[in-house]
Amino acid sequence: LGKSKQKRLSGLPTAVGLLTALVATVIKTPGNNIRYLHIKKLGTIPRCGDTGVPLQGIPALVLVSLTRLSHNKKTVQRAYGGCLSANAVRSIVRAFC
């Protein structure tokens, strides 16, 4: 037995022009095979336009996944819901009262 038998990887999909979308990690299957596992891109956290804090109640998804969500899962039931944070809206409401 000359060289030790080493498992080899093949079959990583190629992405033309979408190099940031092609991220893979190596996993071991229950059958003791080594395979690539494709990792999806992470979405950005939506932030308030005034204060810059992350908006609560709105998921951090990629734009394609956001189009599949219903409207009530993309907003908050408040004035400026989904665009401004609660503290920013509170200051706007206090300015006009």
From TrEMBL:
InterPro entries: Ribosomal_eL34, Ribosomal_eL34_C_sf. One of its GO terms (cellular component) is ribosome. One of its GO terms (biological process) is translation. The keyword DNA repair does not apply. Pfam families: Ribosomal_L34e. It comes from the Eukaryota. Keywords: Ribonucleoprotein, Ribosomal protein. GO terms for molecular function: structural constituent of ribosome. Belongs to the eukaryotic ribosomal protein eL34 family. This is Uncharacterized protein. It comes from Schizosaccharomyces pombe.
